[in-house]
Each structure stands twice: as C-alpha cells, then as structure tokens.
Amino acid sequence: MRSIVYIFILNLLYAQGVPAGTAIENEAFLNYKVGTEKFSLQSNKIVDIVDQKIDMKIVCQESNPVVVGVGETQRAMAFKLVNRGNGKDSYSFTPIFDSSSDFEVENRMIYQDNGDGFFSVISDTLVDTVELNADENTTLFFVSDIPSNAIDVSANGVKVHSVIYKELLYGESKKLDTYYALMAAKDTALSDMCQYKVSNLALKLEKSATLSSDNLYKGSTIHYRLAVKVVGIGNLSNVIVEDSIPEGTAYVPNTLQLDGVNNGDFNGTAISMNLGEIVQERKSSDTKHLISFDVIVN
Amino acid sequence: MKKLIMTSALFLTMAQANVSINTASFQEQTTVNASGEQVVEWVKASKVIPGTIIRYVNSLENSGSQLATKLVVNNPIPKNMEYILNSATCQSACNISYSVDDGKTFKEASNLFVGVGKARHLAKASEYTNIKWILNSLEATAQSAVAYKARLK
Amino acid sequence: MNKLLSMVAIMALSTMAVNAAGTDYNVDITNSATLSFEVGSVAQDTVTSNEDTFKVDRKVDVVVATSDTANIVVVPKINTTSDTKPLTFTVTNESNGRQDYILSASNLATGAATKDAGETDSVDFATDLKVCDDDTCSNGDLSNTNIQFSEGESKTYYIFADIPSNASDEDRGSIALTATAVDDDSTTVMTDDRDTADNKTAVDIVFAEAAGDAANDAQYDGKHSALSAYEVVTATIALVKDSCVVEDGITSDDSKAKRIPGSTVRYTVDIDNSGSADTESATLTDTLQDDLTFVSGEIRDEACNCGTPAGSVIADDTVTANGQDITANFGTVTAGTHECAYITTTIN
Fold first, then answer.
1. Contact state of A17 with C261 under an 8 Å Cβ cutoff
2. CATH number of the domain to which B101 belongs
3. Which of A152, C10, C71, C206 is most buried (most C-beta within 10 Å)?
4. Would the pTM count as exceeding 0.95?
C-alpha cells in the first residue's frame, strides 16, 4: 500500500519524468533449498544513470492577432517557452518571419519578460541565452517596429535552439560526462509565430499628474489624468484602458472617472476602464475621452 | 668305545644304561643389531600367541657306560599345536614316522592315511597326533637331539 | 606308570577351547616325550621327559571395516545425526579372548582416498564427530568410552558429523573409525609386551593387528582403523544481474536507445546452477526503485541475454509484482542449467 502512494507523489513532482543523472540502483535476492536445507544469495548491484531527454516547446501566447498601427515602434508579441525535458538546458533564439505575410517588420528584437507578463523596454531584458530547469517556463517577447507601408497582416515568431545540444537532430544523442542527452523535440515544437494586424484606428494615451502640494509627503494626493485620443479610421471593440497605480501609493476609492463620471474598476493594483466599441468613420473625428483617478502617497 | 653285550638276566640288572630325554620349546626372535642388520635367533618360547611357530627340541644324553640301541622317542603333539609338515628332524641318523591315532599306529608320512572309502586321504598336518623318531644307537656319554616345529592354533 | 601320567597330562589340555581366533590366552601348552631304548638287546624302562610348559599369551587383534560402498552424499549445513546420514563401520575382536577397546573418529588429511574409486579427500569439513552404536545415535557419543568385546564378537558403529554451511559442491572428507585396545574395564591404552622379558606368572600381551587407514596406524600398535567418507553434492548458484534499454520511443536504432523518462528498461537475473544437485523452491525478490514502473516479467530456460531474450518461456514459473516488489518463482533449477528472469519496466 505504502509504495503505491509513494509513486503517486513522485509522479506529481516529476511531471516531466525522472531527472537526468538520477542513479537507479537494483539488486536481487535469491532464496533456495537443496534437500531440506535453505540457502540465500545476493546478486551484484546494478547502477544505471538516467539520460537527459532534451525537449522544449515555444508557443505564441496571443490568442488574437496583435493590433498595431502603422509607424508604431517596439510593438511586442508574447511567446511562452517551456523546458519539457528532464534536465537543465540553455536556449538561444532567432527571429523568424513568414514570407507570405503582407508586410515586413523592422528592428526585430527578442526580449525576456521580467515575470509581470507585460512588455516594457525598461523592465524586460534583451535576451541572450535563457537557462531553464526541467519543467520551467519563461515568457519571451518578439518586438519590432511597424513600417509606414504596413498593411493587413504580418506573421513573425521565434525559433528556439538548445545551446548545449544545438547540433542534434531529433533522435540523435550525445555523450555527456556520465550520461547521454537525446534530442526529443521535433522541429515543429521549436518555433512558433504570432501575427501583427495593422489597424487604421489607434488609441493614443497621454498621462499627466497633478500633485496636491509642491512636495510629495505621506498623505499627499496625486491626481492622474489619462487623455485618450482615437486617431485613424476603423473600429475597435472591447477597448479597455488599464493603468497600474505606482508603488508606494494607494488608490483613493471612488475617484476613478470616465469623462467626469464614476466608472471603471480597480483590482487592487491597476485601474481598468472599458471604453467599449469605438467606431470612427472619418479621420478627423478624433474621439476623445478623459480617464482620471486619485492616489494617496503611503 | 667298548661294546659289551650282556645275555644273562643277572647282568641285565647290573647294566649301567642311563639315557635321559629333556624337552624344551623355542620361538624365533628378530632383532636389529648395531650395524642395522636384522638378526634372527631362536629363543626360549615366552611370547606365544595363536600362529606363533614353536620348535620343540628333545635332547638325549647317554650318561651311562653302555651303548644304548633302538632308541624310540614318542612325542604326542600338544592338543593346541599343529605339526608343521616335514619339520621333524634328528641330529643323528633316524627314522621318522607319524601317528594319526594317538600313537596306536605309526607310519611314514607318505603312507599315512586317514578316513575310509571316498573320504580316505593322505593325512593333513592337523590330523597328526604323534611323532616318533627311532635312532639306531647312542653311545655311552654321547648326546643327540630330535626336534619338530608346530604352530599354536 | 610314567606313560600313564604323560597320557593324563595330554588329556587335560585337550579340553581347552580352540576357535577361529586361536587358542584362548592363559591356556598352558605342555610338551612331553617318552623314550624307550635297549641295552644289549634288552628293553630298558621307558623314560619320560620333563614337561615343557608355556602359557598362551594375549594376541590382541582387531579389525575395523566399513560397510559403506561409496561416499555418503550430504548437502551443506546439515547435522547428519538429525538427517540420519551416518558412516557405518563394524569392529570385530579377533583376539584369542575377551578384549576391551575405545573408539574414536577422526578426519583424515586432505589427499587421503575416499570410498569412491579414484577420488581423494579434498577438505576436512566435518565437525563435531560422534561415534554411536545405533543409526539414530540415541545413546549419544561413545567416543573414548570402554567397550567390551568377547572373543570373535563383531559390533556395528556409526559416525555422525556436522557439515558446515560453506561446504562446496564435490567437497569430500574422509573420516576414520579407530578401535584402540585398552586394559580390561578401563580406558587406559594397552601396552605391548612383545619386546619385554617373559613374565612367567602373568599372561603377556602381543599386538597382532594389521596397519589401518588412519594416520599413524601401523601394524602391531594395538589399534586398527578403517575409513569412510562424506561427499557434498549441492547446488552451486551464481546470481548475475544485468540491465539494458529496450527502446526509448525516439532513437530509431533500438540498440542505441537511451534511458529517458518513458524508456523501456529491462532487468535480467541469471541463475546458473553449476553444482551437482538441483535447487528447489528458488524464489527471487527484487524491489524496483520508485523511478520505475513494472510492465511485465517472465522466466526463460536459457542463460540471460538482455537485448534478445534467449530460450523458451517456462510456463510454470511466474513473475509477479506487488507494488514495487517483484517476485520471480523459479521453482526447481536443475543442476547444470541456467534460467533467466526478464523484468521489463518503464522509467517514470
């Protein structure tokens, strides 16, 4: 009974299998009789080392094409990389492009997310190599500039390479110190693409703040204003503006307003305002909205 | 040696004939001498166990002054001893015969038979009961000896 | 008169018993002869010799023999008393009268002959030797106790021993039973009077037995011995484990498959019985490390070949798993054969 429970727990721990380098020991015991006499014997001990299965997968995390505007810079698309093998591995990346796309992007770069799930040039890092243990994952951003002649759709993505085992094809293996590494990742898992979709309708956001006093003290109020300007022609649906409140401050309840009227939600770290569907038929229309809210310095 | 032949009875009683017979037993003893050689001697029989070979010696001495003639020595073989065939000897000329009937009759060995009918056979050593030696004469003051060997059963 | 006397003397001697062992000791042997002669032609009085007498001495002769016609087969670790596997001997008193003996059992040196023709003692392994007078040793060890034999009497004795657990197949140990003559009603070893001066009033002792099988058992030393032997017939088992990867689901050449999670890994356990006896009830237990999951198991009738199982599956031999504990029942493994348990698992 006890042994069955033990296996179950281990299976949870080692979802991707027994770690590479694990020593599996085994020996056997024999009991036998000759005539009426009993004897026993022990076999030699076998020690086998578990080899490393190299396996990783990268998947585009954008469920819909990322909507971009012509001329925009550093627009990000998110990818998730997971180490599905049973040992540590190091990865390097190259950007890839589907040449049947409608437009080509410029200044392609790949960043590693700092863990917050949002791309930010300041907080995220330009990736070199990423090291992942078995079962670990990380988020990468494909970042590029949208050219002035961009139209419709451009498919771009990331290809993953194992740094240590980069020359191994699927089914090939290489001897390490005490065990082997076997390439178990098929080509199809090693790259993926997301899509940019050009939209003629875009939102421009301008944020400003007013302080309650010249200097900031504990208890000072900061009044934030987000001016939302819609430019271009087209329609956007389910437009949601989100803004995190700064560290060291607390949202002042009931101060979140859209165009002077209480609206929106605060989820504890960010305000969120749903602007619904925006339709603009003429370029000159330029819908404007004002989102405002207050925070107090802790 | 003077030969005196007496014919009258009177002289017979005055005749000086004195022959004695003395019997002794011997057994072989093997010893190793100083040079490491084995020495076999006949010593007085003292360590006798079944199978031991004994040599009996009957010594005769004529201590009288007359010649003794027709000397007959009759030696019944002791009941636990078995005569060793052809071992009877004498020092001076003699005639040897044997009995298988406790001394009633004596015959020479080649003529000594036992049994009747189909069982009749030349006597085996175990059937010998007596040995007889006949010496022709023994001069006065002379000695002689007769001997035989037997094995303790 | 003298003749009559000598005749009477002879008659007295003839009543003494003489049997196969010879004339009893203490019997007097007397020789006497008569002499008749003539002087002139006149018969003289018959002369009777003296009586020459000697006593029949004690001929000490014993024969120890074994009735075992071949080495007695044993397995290691047994106590032959409880397993009733003794060595059997007879001791016969061939002295010319009553004789007492003490008996002892001893291991012969390696290289001594055994009961099987052409074979020799290879090792002194039997311990705790006991000399017993029945085949279950119900009266205990009689070694070195006084045992009286009448003239010509023959008795049967049994030697029992312990066979150590590390005795190997084909080990042979020769054991001798020695009977040593002792003084009447004692355990004091008799001394021989062969070379001492004759004692007229007592019966002398003369050792007459042959040399025996035990070491230092010479002719005429007052003891005799015979050998029998135990021979170990047992299974000699070598147990060898091996492992190999059957396939990993990725590498195209199975012979180059790697041990990765999901790989099929096979263990083999080879049982080689190079001894002379079958083993019975051979059961193998093997606990798989928790990183493995049991798939299947079988036992085949040839030496193990992990990559390519050899031989045919033995239907009656089962391999079962209770969690991580694997039990392989080999049952009987015949002498001179290999059997192999194949245990197939996957790496978690």
1. yes
2. 2.60.40.2260
3. C206
4. no
